[in-house]
Amino acid sequence: MHRRRAQNRAAQRAFRERKEKHARDLEVQLTAMTEKYDRLELSHTELNAAYEKLRKTIELLTQDVDAEGEDEDGRAIKRKSSSSDTLRKLLEILHGEIKGVTPVKPELA
């Protein structure tokens, strides 16, 4: 009977140790996955910002008409934007200074 109790205590101790080790392993996994998620979220935010800059750049470079005006006879005409206007807008986009494109800041978990 004494031998049986000792055996049960040893088995119970081994079970508790395995259970605690499993809990520690899960905590390590959770930490690693949380860190990976944070890195991916930051990368996603950066890629979205780059995408918006590129989208605005493409929009600017492909637009045909910038404004309307009148010719000397008073007729409505459309004028194309000048190269300097286009370059200025392009630089604003690339430096994140264009209206409508606000840098997205990642939320900290």
Gist?
The chain is 67% helix and 7% strand. The chain is mostly helical and 109 residues long. The chain is rod-shaped, with a radius of gyration of 32 Å.
Blueprint of the fold:
Layout: H1 2-62, E1 67-70, E2 76-79, H2 83-94
Antiparallel strand pairs: 1-2
Region (Disordered): 1-21
Subcellular location: Nucleus
InterPro entries: AP-1-like, bZIP, bZIP_sf
Strand runs, count = 2
The helix-and-strand class reads: mainly alpha
> Uncertain spans, ≥5 residues at pLDDT below 50?
none
Distance from N terminus to C terminus (CA atoms, Å) equals 55 Å
- How can the largest sheet be summarized? 2 strands, antiparallel
How does the overall form come out from the CA principal axes?
rod-shaped
Give Rg in angstroms.
Answer: 32 Å
